[in-house]
Amino acid sequence: MRAVPTPSGSVGYTDHGAGPALVFVHGFLLDKSMWLPQIVHFVPLGYRVLCVDLLGFGDSTPAPGTIPLTAHSAALAAVLDAAGAETATVIGYSIGGQVALDFAAAQPDRLTALVLSGTSAAADGPDVRAERLALADRLAAEGVDDYAEEFLPHLLGARTLRDRPSVVEHALTMIAAADPEGAAAALRGRAERPDYTEVARALTVPSLVVVGAEDSFDRGVLAAELAALIPGSRLAVVADSGHTPSLERPLSFNAELEEFLESVAGAPRPGPLRTR
Ligand SMILES: O=C(O)CC1=CCC(=O)O1
Has keyword Hydrolase (predicted)? Predict the structure, then answer.
């Protein structure tokens, strides 16, 4: 694990392999370890895989209060600077996808391509915003343990919950480790995020939108709307998956991502394995 200081706190990340940089950004209550199936797949293919802990999660500083998405996307730029990577493909999941959209707006010259999984561009309406703020207060007061039971059936699909116990265990381990103040601060920041619809419309980099076929947050709508906004984007629907296809159906997710990356730049030539 490495760490880089930012004005909003220290940001933890891992850095494996050599080649074109892929930056992975995790979802709410999770951490950078959610991308283990992608590290294992893409490093031997000749990519440099950077997995970042959002401020408030994992090895990043638990920051109380409110963490705006701009602070998370500035943290991605700080990680790229620290890693000496001028540009990267950013792969963001759920809140991480919205951080990736913020990065696309703030650092367009550093973005090679964009992958958005289980996410949407629009701002929250007043009801959803109020729910997020109430949940932030609840998590800060109660911790995450009780909420984990409510969250899990939305995070993972029914098939995963029934037949993939190691995935369920990994998800529960990440959630149990989440800092309640950090989670609350991330929720407050997400609730006040801007609308990224125009950012999505203005994207000029190759883009892939991924969604699980049984994603209960998406309800068969949001990813298709997002893909329709982004000029020339591809939409990949992963069968037998809920909200988190990279963990639930890693072989399918990795195959979609690999094909997309090859279509963008051709396959890199695998180099020596390096872990920093
Ligand atoms: O989209 C949501 O509100 C819920 C969610 C699951 C993972 C994440 O980042 O957010």
Answer: yes
Residue-range definition of the domain harbouring residue 82: 2-275
The predicted-structure confidence for 88-141, as pLDDT tens digits, reads as follows: 999 999 999 999 999 999 999 999 999 999 999 999 999 999 999 999 999 999
Kindly give the distance from the C-alpha atom of residue 212 to the centroid of ligand 1, in angstroms, as a whole number.
Answer: 13
Structure tokens at 250: 């890693």
pLDDT in tens, 126-168: 999 999 999 999 999 999 999 999 999 999 999 999 999 999 9
Instruction: Check if 151 has its Cβ closer than 6 Å to any atom of ligand 1.
Output: no
Q: For ligand 1, what atom is nearest to the CA of residue 217?
A: 1
- The predicted complex's ipTM stands at 0.94
Q: Which residues contact 167 (CB under 8 A, 6 or more apart)?
A: 156, 160, 247, 248
Question: Which residues are CB-neighbours of 114 under 8 A, at least 6 positions away?
Answer: 89, 90, 92, 100, 101, 104, 203, 205, 206, 207, 208, 230
C-alpha 167/C-alpha 183 separation (Å) is 21
Where residue 59 sits, what CATH number does that domain have?
Answer: 3.40.50.1820
Does residue 171's CB lie within 6 angstroms of at least one atom of ligand 1?
Answer: no
Cβ–ligand 1 distance for 28 under 6 Å, the answer: yes
Spatial separation of the C-alpha atoms in residues 193 and 119, rounded to whole Å = 13
Number of domains forming the structure of the chain: 1
C-beta of residue 46 within 8 angstroms of C-beta of residue 78: no
- Ramachandran region of residue 219, left (φ > 0), alpha (ψ -120 to 50) or beta? left
